[in-house]
């Protein structure tokens, strides 16, 4: 019975075959032929050039010559021969064997040689040794770190602060913790190298606006707004940030913070403020540019600074609201994957903070000295002063270039050498020429500290006038 | 377990083992994470509908209409899994991080959202978490006295960069000493180990170059490679066949799409990988590097001072020539009890870095007392201070390593890594055991480090012990006894290869029997 059933199904099939329309049969026939062709054709991979024999590959490997690991550096390269400082880099500094007055170290409040700071560091050294032997997460958190974070947060008036063990790494780790691929960052052209590296690590879209030009920034923000209206879904998840410095290292002027706050609320952008030079310098109590302009500190989302200038220690910190700072404890690369700050340096920073809080008049004294030398340096033929009158880190640039950057650098070096031979230690501002986004012109860095007396300031000014006269004319 | 004598490249046995995860354990671990995820969703739901109080910090009222700073999903792991066992990390201590340490007691009344300090100090916890391989974390002794002397003379900070006014005579002294210690022509020191990698790799390679990086390289190497702009290709962890294939393909095919030849090829490896406890197969890497004309960057963060008969690192451990390694990088944080990093190599290399390194031009130089600590400890290890303390410490560390690892294997735990590495990962696998192990060991006065996702693959959570020359045999025995107890309590003895315990003999090179259970 089964055999008959099968036969019967076969008959039905053959019948259906005859009854089917012609196009149906032709289509099926073409499909079957196509399948047969695919089954028998050779597969080929796009990537591998399998037409190279083993011998040819070996020949290619033999022939390939790499570049040398590093190109040779000429012996007289200006950046290769460092000044050797024997002894502490304090107010009187011995450079290359010669005693000079220090106008080159960022020791604004003179705390590098302070006895109280040193004894606090000594006490910490006796209790903890030197190193911490671990990152913050693995037994590297000391009570000194917690105390320093609390003190910094209290001093600045924010909820929380976080400490890094290296000044450069502070802002370079903070930016990529918040700004990721696809986010937009508006940054000033004169931003320092650490900010540039942080932005590069974050892989976000970077939009540069002209230095301190709020009209240019507003133009960029408006452009972004029109972009957003075209794609509102994307705009709702794209974070935006403005990164500015309080006191710019490369130009010596301050950012117009009140206008920035207005732009922040108008265009809904967050502000990250880098205060390495302005912490401990601006403001009535040294709290930085927010105190200088009288702005509510909660309006700034993140303030980052390093402790290597006014606090004369090592490391850096970020402060702000807990909502923002707490995130860095798990995603700040320089915080999680690096050993914590040696306790003696943290203790030195705490003592320096104590001194800053107890003597609020040093800031006024420092500003007066800056004004004095700023006025005294005006009118040097061939050199112009770049920077605000109350900025303790000024630049002296050539009024006009003498051909190429190399020539300018050589000329400025002769001015610096003249001053060093006469007892004033100065230095040129050092940059990596190929790596900077917007390379500043060559300049001499003049740093004013609270320890310099008025005679010394006047001596420096007159010496610079002399040097400019003899070298540039 | 495999002993390799690869064509005479290795002058000593290379014993490395990564026992496979037992199937039942893997399944249970996934189940555990599944349960935690479900509960996580439930709690998030309750928090959203205000049934449960949300204890996270929140955005300012004035900025509520800004684009949210964090996506909810990014923090899911943080809120629901990490927060439960958060007390295992960031434990604050208040004494020198030596073999025994004092910890500040902290309690949480709201399941780890906030901590309060009771004010009590837990004293003399055996410290198996700090990177103190040679025991130089001391508050007394020659190193500390020298550092105190330099501190009173020079101060704590420097306030300038190396290229400007921050190059002290102390830095020059340190660099000459480090070059002598490593056996290279020249060396340069930096203030932070992490920054040494992330600021110097971009100076060495750029666009048009190729970087071959190990799978499990540290975040600083990955960041440095990314910032350089070179093409990055990853080879399997310590796998020489994978590396050779990549090298061959790279030279034969050239750059992708344009087919131009690569400018240079840089291989990034580490001496000891701190999460696995494995040691790099350096003889084979050097043989490959020479055959294919590429350059080698060796990061000895954990292996300098900890390996080798006189503590000169992984190059000495294998009996190789330091000149074969093009860039020898390391840190001073682990074996020297200080902070900072160094790069050593030929004079041209170091001269180039002095001119073009990002750190030399923009970052403050090292603090003088820290420099003095390094100088004194290096002299101690080399024996130049007139004592044999350094040599004794290196021996003690090697003995401690062998003893500790052997005993743990005998107890039946799964231990990863090379027999000679002082970093000992003990596998926990299940998420609940991460928190439990840390807390139980602390109850018994032993401080351990536990690591989970994302530092390790999701099912391979582990506890990591860092041995030190400062650990005496009594401390190790105490620790081992407690680990045995906790292992039984938490059922951590997963290993299916039981070692027959030896009679208590002095340490020597005898092999031991192995029985499969």
UniProtKB/TrEMBL annotation, chain A:
GO biological process: ceramide biosynthetic process; sphingosine biosynthetic process
Coiled coil ranges: none
GO MF: pyridoxal phosphate binding; serine C-palmitoyltransferase activity
Cofactors required: pyridoxal 5'-phosphate
Catalyzed reaction equations: L-serine + hexadecanoyl-CoA + H(+) = 3-oxosphinganine + CO2 + CoA; tetradecanoyl-CoA + L-serine + H(+) = 3-oxohexadecasphinganine + CO2 + CoA; dodecanoyl-CoA + L-serine + H(+) = 3-oxotetradecasphinganine + CO2 + CoA; octadecanoyl-CoA + L-serine + H(+) = 3-oxoeicosasphinganine + CO2 + CoA
Keyword list, A-Z: Acyltransferase, Lipid metabolism, Membrane, Pyridoxal phosphate, Sphingolipid metabolism, Transferase, Transmembrane, Transmembrane helix
Stored Gene3D superfamilies: Aspartate Aminotransferase, domain 1, Type I PLP-dependent aspartate aminotransferase-like (Major domain)
UniProt pathway: Sphingolipid metabolism; Lipid metabolism; sphingolipid metabolism
Lineage top rank: taxon: Eukaryota
Family in the record: Belongs to the class-II pyridoxal-phosphate-dependent aminotransferase family.
Biological function: Component of the serine palmitoyltransferase multisubunit enzyme (SPT) that catalyzes the initial and rate-limiting step in sphingolipid biosynthesis by condensing L-serine and activated acyl-CoA (most commonly palmitoyl-CoA) to form long-chain bases. The SPT complex is also composed of SPTLC2 or SPTLC3 and SPTSSA or SPTSSB. Within this complex, the heterodimer with SPTLC2 or SPTLC3 forms the catalytic core. The composition of the serine palmitoyltransferase (SPT) complex determines the substrate preference.
Name by which UniProt lists this protein: Serine palmitoyltransferase 1
Lineage, top ranks: Eukaryota, Metazoa, Chordata, Craniata, Vertebrata
Automatic annotation (TrEMBL), chain B:
Subcellular localization(s) per the UniProt record: Endoplasmic reticulum membrane
GO cellular component: endoplasmic reticulum membrane; serine palmitoyltransferase complex
The UniProt record lists the keyword Transit peptide: no
Cofactor: pyridoxal 5'-phosphate
EC numbers, comma separated: 2.3.1.50
TM annotation in the entry: 23-42
Pfam family, any one: Aminotran_1_2
Keywords per UniProt: Acyltransferase, Endoplasmic reticulum, Lipid metabolism, Membrane, Pyridoxal phosphate, Sphingolipid metabolism, Transferase, Transmembrane, Transmembrane helix
Keyword Cell membrane applies: no
Example GO BP: sphingosine biosynthetic process
UniProt membrane topology term: Single-pass membrane protein
Molecular function GO labels: pyridoxal phosphate binding; serine C-palmitoyltransferase activity
Gene3D superfamilies referenced in this protein's UniProt entry, alphabetically: Aspartate Aminotransferase, domain 1 (3.90.1150.10), Type I PLP-dependent aspartate aminotransferase-like (Major domain) (3.40.640.10)
Coiled coil: none
Protein name: serine C-palmitoyltransferase
Taxonomic source organism: Leptocoma aspasia
Gene field: Sptlc2_0
């Amino acid at each position: 019975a089964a055999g008959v059933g099968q036969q019967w199904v076969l008959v039905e099939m053959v019948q259906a075959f005859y009854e089917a329309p012609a196009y149906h049969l032709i289509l099926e026939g073409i499909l079957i032929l196509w399948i047969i062709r695919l089954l028998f054709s050779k597969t080929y991979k796009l990537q591998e050039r399998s037409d190279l024999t083993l011998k040819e590959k070996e020949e290619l490997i033999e022939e390939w010559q790499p570049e040398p690991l590093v190109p040779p550096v000429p012996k007289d390269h200006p950046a290769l021969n460092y000044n050797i400082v024997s002894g502490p880099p304090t107010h009187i500094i011995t450079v290359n064997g010669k005693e000079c007055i220090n106008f080159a170290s960022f020791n604004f409040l003179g705390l590098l040689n302070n006895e109280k700071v040193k004894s606090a560091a000594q006490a910490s050294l006796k209790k903890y040794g030197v190193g911490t032997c671990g990152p913050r997460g693995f037994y590297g958190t000391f009570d000194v770190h917690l105390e320093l974070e609390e003190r910094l947060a209290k001093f600045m008036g924010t909820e929380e602060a976080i400490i890094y063990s290296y000044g450069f790494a502070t802002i370079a780790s903070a930016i990529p913790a918040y700004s990721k691929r696809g986010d937009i960052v508006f940054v000033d052209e004169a931003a320092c190298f650490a900010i540039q590296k942080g932005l590069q690590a974050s892989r976000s879209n970077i939009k540069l606006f002209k230095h301190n030009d709020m009209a240019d920034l507003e133009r960029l923000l408006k452009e972004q707004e029109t972009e957003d209206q075209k794609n509102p879904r994307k705009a709702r998840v794209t974070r935006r940030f403005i990164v500015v410095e309080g006191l710019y290292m490369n130009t010596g002027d301050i950012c117009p913070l009140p206008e920035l706050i207005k732009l922040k609320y108008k265009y809904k952008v967050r502000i990250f403020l880098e205060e390495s030079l302005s912490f401990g310098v601006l403001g009535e109590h040294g709290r930085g540019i927010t105190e200088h302009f009288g702005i509510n500190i909660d309006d700034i989302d993140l303030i980052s600074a390093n402790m290597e200038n006014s606090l004369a220690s090592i490391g850096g910190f970020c402060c702000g609201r807990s909502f923002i700072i707490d995130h860095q404890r798990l995603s700040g690369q320089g915080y999680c994957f690096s050993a914590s700050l040696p306790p003696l340096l943290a203790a030195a920073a705490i003592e320096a903070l104590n001194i800053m809080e107890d003597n609020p008049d040093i800031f006024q004294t420092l500003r007066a000295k800056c004004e004095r030398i700023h006025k005294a340096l005006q009118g040097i033929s061939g050199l112009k002063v770049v920077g605000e009158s109350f900025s303790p880190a000024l630049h002296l640039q050539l009024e006009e270039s003498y051909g190429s950057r190399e020539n300018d650098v050589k000329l400025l070096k002769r001015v610096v050498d003249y001053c060093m031979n006469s007892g004033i230690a100065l230095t040129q501002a050092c940059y990596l020429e190929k790596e900077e986004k917007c390379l500043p012109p060559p300049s001499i860095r003049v740093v004013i500290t609270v320890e310099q007396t008025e005679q010394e300031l006047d001596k420096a000014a007159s010496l610079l006038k002399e040097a400019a006269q003899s070298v540039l004319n | 377990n495999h002993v390799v004598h690869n064509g005479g490249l290795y002058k000593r046995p290379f014993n490395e083992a990564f026992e496979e995860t037992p199937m039942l354990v893997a399944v249970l671990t996934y189940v555990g994470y599944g349960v935690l995820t479900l509960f996580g969703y439930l709690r998030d739901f309750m928090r959203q509908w205000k049934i449960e109080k949300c204890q996270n910090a929140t955005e300012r009222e004035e900025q509520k209409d800004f684009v949210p700073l964090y996506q909810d999903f990014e923090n899911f792991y943080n809120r629901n899994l990490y927060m439960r066992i958060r007390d295992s990390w960031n434990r604050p201590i208040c004494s020198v991080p030596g073999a025994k340490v004092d910890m500040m007691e902290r309690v949480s009344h709201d399941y780890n959202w906030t901590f309060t300090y009771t004010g009590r100090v837990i004293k003399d916890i055996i410290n198996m978490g700090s990177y103190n391989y040679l025991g130089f974390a001391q508050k007394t002794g020659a190193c500390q006295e020298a550092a105190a002397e330099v501190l009173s003379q020079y101060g704590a900070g420097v306030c300038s960069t190396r290229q400007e006014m921050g190059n002290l005579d102390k830095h020059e002294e340190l660099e000459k000493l480090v070059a002598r210690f490593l056996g290279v022509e020249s060396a340069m020191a930096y203030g932070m180990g992490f920054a040494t990698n992330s600021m110097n790799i971009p100076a060495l390679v750029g666009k048009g170059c190729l970087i071959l990086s190990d799978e499990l390289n540290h975040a600083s190497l990955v960041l440095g490679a990314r910032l350089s702009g070179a093409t990055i290709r990853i080879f399997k962890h310590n796998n020489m066949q994978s590396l050779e294939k990549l090298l061959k393909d790279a030279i034969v095919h050239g750059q992708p799409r344009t087919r131009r030849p690569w400018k240079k090829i840089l291989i990034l490896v580490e001496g000891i990988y701190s999460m696995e406890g494995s040691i790099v197969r350096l003889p084979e890497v050097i043989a490959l590097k020479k055959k294919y004309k590429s350059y080698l960057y060796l990061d000895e963060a954990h292996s300098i001072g900890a390996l080798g008969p006189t503590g000169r690192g992984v190059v000495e451990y294998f009996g190789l020539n330091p000149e074969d390694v093009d860039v020898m990088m390391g840190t001073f944080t682990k074996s020297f009890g200080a902070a900072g990093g160094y790069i050593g190599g030929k004079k041209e290399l170091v001269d180039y870095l002095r001119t073009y390194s990002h750190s030399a031009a923009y970052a403050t130089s090292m603090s003088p007392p820290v420099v003095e600590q390094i100088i004194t400890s290096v002299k101690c290890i080399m024996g130049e201070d007139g004592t044999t303390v350094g040599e004794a410490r290196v021996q003690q560390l090697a003995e401690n390593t062998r003893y500790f690892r052997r005993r743990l294997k005998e107890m039946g735990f799964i231990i990863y890594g090379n027999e000679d590495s002082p970093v000992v990962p003990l596998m926990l696998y299940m998420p609940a055991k991460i928190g439990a192990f840390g807390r139980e060991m602390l109850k018994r006065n032993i401080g351990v480090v536990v690591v989970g996702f994302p530092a390790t693959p999701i099912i391979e959570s582990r506890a990591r012990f860092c041995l030190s020359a400062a650990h005496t045999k009594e401390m190790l025995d105490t620790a081992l006894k407690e680990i045995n107890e906790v292992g039984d309590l938490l059922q951590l003895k997963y290993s299916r290869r039981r070692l027959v315990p030896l009679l208590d003999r002095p340490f020597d090179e005898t092999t031991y029997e192995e029985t499969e259970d």
